[in-house]
Design goal:
By secondary structure, the chain is mainly α. The chain is 82% helix and 0% strand. The protein contains 17 helices and no strands. Helix 1 runs antiparallel to helix 2, helix 1 packs parallel to helix 3 and helix 10 packs antiparallel against helix 11.
């Protein structure tokens, strides 16, 4: 069992810091064997190995669009381990893996709780810094921007310089700056992170920086022509990695590009594709954002009935998740609401 744990943990490290395209293929080839080892952990009561395995495999499951499958494994292992081991490292690994999958499924409250538990148990300062950075992402999505900035700042201070991890923490601080309306700071920080990630050969991180620069061009500059090449490159990189969640995010962003160019059929297609992928990976926030994009298409198409229905569905999801609409997207959102209000009824209602 130790061999399987070591293999999974080595693959997970390579997935973060190494050749991600090659590592994903290696992980996919190893997955049946590793899941068979997980099954043996459950039948033989080896909960320590089980916790470490699900912690190591969570990123692979998430990137491959297998969050629901991983969630099922992880919950089974956590339940089996409860009351049967106090191994702090194993528990921190299992809880952080569960937190990552909860986040992928769009359950930010549960993700925050799981990462907080992992942070309390984790004895290693470097791994504590990693957990703080991820917990900052959760707090950001919940609209708790001060908490997010504090966590990302603490993580960045503790992480080694000129590493993919440090670039990620800097990137996350740039996202917080964007959400706070500090757009010039966010743009400069994302450009620095992009350069650093390219130098490090961090394909996943490079795609994320490109995507965020594209989002700034979209929602701050209202410049879809500047956003498109950034988002196209991000999408190409994410496709090369088989990153289902990342592809959905880039495709949906390209839906906004098409919308701003009044290419409504293309926009609708993009948002529908993103919606299907977010549903596949179980990301409810991504589902809500795609529905909001489709609402904007309906508003510009004059389809009042469909637009209102999409708005109600998206609002219900955000309310359930406790995730507010990001401020930079508010202008386009309110424009869509205004268009729906002013459009003539499409179902005979007044």
């Amino acid at each position: 069992m130790q061999t399987a744990v070591q293999e999974a943990e080595a693959l997970n490290e390579a997935l973060i810091y190494g050749d991600q395209t090659t590592t994903l293929a290696q992980f996919a080839a190893a997955a049946p064997r590793l899941e068979a080892a997980l099954h043996r952990c459950m039948t033989e009561g080896d909960v320590v190995s089980g916790l470490r395995l699900v912690g190591a495999m969570s990123r692979y499951w998430w990137m491959q669009g297998l969050a629901e499958q991983g969630w099922t494994w992880t919950q089974s292992v956590l339940e089996a381990a409860t009351g049967h081991t106090e191994d702090a490292v194993a528990w921190a690994s299992g809880l952080s893996g569960a937190g990552a999958l909860a986040r992928a499924r769009g359950d930010y409250a549960q993700a925050g709780d799981l990462f907080s538990q992992a942070l309390r148990r984790e004895p290693d300062p470097l791994r504590q810094a990693r957990l703080k950075d991820v917990l900052g992402i959760i707090r950001r999505e919940q609209g708790r921007l001060d908490d997010a900035a504090t966590l990302h700042t603490a993580a960045l201070a503790a992480l080694p310089e000129n590493t993919a991890e440090a670039a990620l923490a800097a990137h996350n601080l740039a996202v917080v700056a964007f959400l706070r309306g500090q757009y010039d700071t966010a743009r400069r920080s994302h450009r620095r992170a992009l350069q650093q990630r390219r130098t490090l050969g961090d394909t996943l991180g490079t795609a994320s920086s490109l995507n965020n620069l594209g989002v700034i061009a979209l929602f701050v500059d209202a410049d879809p022509d500047a956003a498109r090449p950034l988002l196209d490159e991000a999408l190409s990189l994410r496709r090369s990695l088989g990153d289902t969640w990342g592809m959905a995010a880039s495709i949906s962003a390209l839906g906004w590009v098409a919308l701003l160019n009044e290419a409504l059929d293309e926009s609708r297609k993009r948002f529908e594709e993103g919606l299907a992928s977010f549903r596949q990976v179980g990301d409810q926030l991504g589902v809500a954002e795609s529905l909001e994009g489709l609402m904007a298409v309906a508003a510009r198409s004059g389809d009042r009935t469909r637009g209102h229905a999409l708005h109600e569905e998206a609002t219900a999801i955000r309310s359930r998740l406790g995730v507010p609409l990001p401020e930079p997207r508010r202008a386009l959102h309110e424009d869509a609401i205004r268009r729906l209000r002013e459009s003539p009824p499409t179902d005979g209602s007044t």
